[in-house]
Structure formats: C-alpha cells, structure tokens
Hints:
Blueprint: H1 3-21, H2 30-39, H3 55-74, H4 76-94, H5 99-111, H6 113-119, H7 125-140, H8 148-163, H9 168-184, H10 190-198, H11 203-211, H12 216-225, H13 248-255, H14 272-290, H15 301-318, H16 323-348, H17 366-371, H18 379-390, E1 396-399, H19 401-412, E2 420-423, H20 427-433, E3 439-441, E4 457-458, E5 463-465, H21 470-476
Amino acid sequence: MNRSNGFGVFVLCSIVALCFADNGGAVQWMDSGYFLGSAHEGVYFDDGLSAQSHPLYHVVTVAVAAAFGSNGLAVLNGLLLFPIALLVIRITRTLGGSLNSGLFAACTTCLAHSVFWISTKVEVYSLNLLLILACYWIVFDTGLPLRPQLRMLSLGILTGLGLAVHQLTLLCVAPLYLYACWIYRASSVVSIAGFLAGLAPCYPGLIEELHHGRPIVAIVREYLTSATPSSSAYENSLFRFDRIWATKAYAAIALLSLFGPQAIGLLYPKDPRERTVWCAAVINLGFAVSYDVADRFTFFLPGAALLAILAWNRIDRAFPASLRRALLSAVAVAMMPATLILGYLASENGLVRFPKNDHVLPFRNDVKYFLAPYLPDDSALQFVRAYERLVPPGAIVFSDWTPLAALQSAQATGKFDRRVLMRCEDYPSWARRSPSRSAYVVRIEAGCENVGFGVPSPVDIGFLIPAREPSTTSQVF
C-alpha cells in the first residue's frame, strides 16, 4: 500500500473513531430512545405491520440488545460504518475509480452530515444504507463469480431485506432495476422470488393483520406510506415540493449532506452505470427535501453515499493519485464537519441566528444536536438524571413522544425505574379513573396542551399535576 492509500486508511479509521467518541449512549431522544426501549422487551416480531414496524431492524435490535445490552445496541450503527465503507470502496473501484478515490469516497460518506448523525444514534437508516449499497455492488461488480440468475436472485433478496428495514429502499433501487433488467433481460424475473424471500421478516406481522380481517391492499398501503384508516397525514406529506419554502429550515438541514466533495457528484455522468447511480441519488435527494417532516435529513443517507462515489470517481479522472492529492482530499473532507461546528459556535456567541424549534426540550441544544453531530451530546442522559431526582418512585409521568422515548430507554438500563410512563393522549381517561392522584408532565406542549386542564404547577423540570377532589374533578369533565 502506497503512502496516499495509507493516509486514506488513517483518515477513514479516524472518522469511525470519532463516531464512537460522539455516540449518543444508551439513553437517547425520539425514535432512538424508542428502539432502545422496545429492544429490551425481547419480542422479535410485532403483532401487526405498519410503516413504523421496520421488521428486520427490530429483529436485529432485539438480538443485539439480548447479547450486548443497551450499550452494545447504541454503537451498532457506528459498527455498520465498517461494511458501509467497504461497499463504498468496492463500488467506486467497480465503476473505474482507484483505491485512493474509494477510500476518500468512504471518508466522505461516513463524515456526511446525515450519515454521521445517524451513526451516533439507534436508527434504521444505517442498516438500510448498507443493504442499498449491497444491491448496487451485486449488480455492478462483474468480478463476482455469479451467473445472471443468481445475481438477480441476490438482488431481489437484498431488496426485500431492505424493504423490511425501510420503505426508502424501493425509491433508491428503482433505477438499478431498470439497468439490471436492461442488462440481464429474462434473468431479471428471478429477482421476484428473491424479493419475496427477502420480505420474510414482514410475514409474521402481515399474517396477524390478515387474521384480523384487514384487506391486503390497505396493509401494503399503510406499510409503504403510513396511511391508516384514521389518518393519512404522513402520506399527504410525501413529495410536497409546494411546502419546501415554508419549511426551508428543515430542507436546509437535509442539504447539509451535500456540503463537501460529494456535491461534485451532482454533475451528470456519461457512463450508464454512473447514470444509474446518479438517478438514484437525485431521486433520493428530491424525496428527502420534499418530505414534509422535521427530520427529513435522515432520509438522505443513500443519496449522500452514491454522490460521494460519483464525485471521487470524477476527481480520480481529473487528478492523478498522489500523497499531495491525498492531503488536499483530507482537508476537503475535514471542511465538512469543521464548517458545521464553526456555525454552531457562531450561533452560541450570537454571531449568527438559526431558526429555533417550537418545542424546546430540557438540557438539549437543538442547534448543536441537529447541526453538529460531530460534537458529543448526552442531553437525554442529563435530562433523565435530573428528572429522576425530581420525580419520586411510584409517580405517574405523562409525556409527548420525544422525552417519553428518552425515559423509556433509561428504564431499559435500570434508570428511572418504578415510575409509570404514559402518553399525553391517555391523560383524560386516566384522570377520570384516578382523580385523587397527582402526576407529572414533562412539558405542556407538543400534544400535551390539555394535560392537567390548565392546573399544572411548574416545577424544576416540567409541571406537577396536583390531585383533585372528586367533586371538583366531576366539574372539569
């Protein structure tokens, strides 16, 4: 290995080490906290199938939690950076790039804002990225000793497994299937059998849904778009290009993953395989930017990786590999996190002002949390420790989704135990059943506005809902 490649390996290993240093730990906010909490229930398959089921990822998290505990599960996505990097290197080389360009494509991928942010959390998107990259590797790498039928069968299996992790898989592999069908013709039919086999983790939930009499079309629609009989809010949030300007702050965060050498990958390539990769990346970018949810940036991992591959192949053709190029490449890659960290520091010192979240969480600095994942953040753990001192054992705690998930993940590790956690929407029925009991609520917002019906008293963190006399309670209801 020459010096430029050795330096590329050093940079890549340093990025992965930084990811482990910045890991969110066994207590986390939002979906990450939910996955940490549910993994410790030990149930491998849900009793239904919805867009939030992520069946394969759920099986993996339960198995990892059983074997290594919450701390082991917390670093799972960081460990997945190793096979992700290897696949990026292999795809880059398959498309004609050098080992050096493959190494720096892997560095760019791992350090991209969305990829690095997810790698410090417990989320589905790293495993989804791994399976999507494996699909491209299976089709493009002609050096693999696979007959066309076996290659397409493998592609179908990987696609099914990817869909069992996240629905984003279908969008990201659609151009690849067009290319594969064009190349392998009749052999492509075999991919259908592989796809059905790869969907195996979805079948227990699907059978349970069918057993309860739900139509197969409604089940598939809900799994793909989150549309339920009672709500189609998430389905109506898909491809909302008309809402991009109104939600420009969230769209801008999604575009942070283009800040760096990967932006060069947006240039339209000539090679048919690279055009396939480019189409997938652009489709993913369009979906992520237009999806009308706050955390839309988490949907842009595949696009960031594919654009990094295209960018470094273009750089490789323009500039020959050398130690000087490797040093300049490292500087270019390092500029991505450095600029975002400087932006966060500037906001802390009042030099710039970023839009603020409408719903503030205790101990969490949202600018740091979302903008600069390269800095350690243990705000969820700080919140749990402080709230544990405030809320006595045996107390009832009402909360909206984000802090509730942190408390659930804490209980999975033995913290905040002997407290009963409830969702805010369950408060009216609980208040009718237990009018003489007091309770705590983390915050009177984000869906918890009606908790306590205007009578909660502020405490150090959140509010205390005092017990009410039965006669008074009957007047409230």
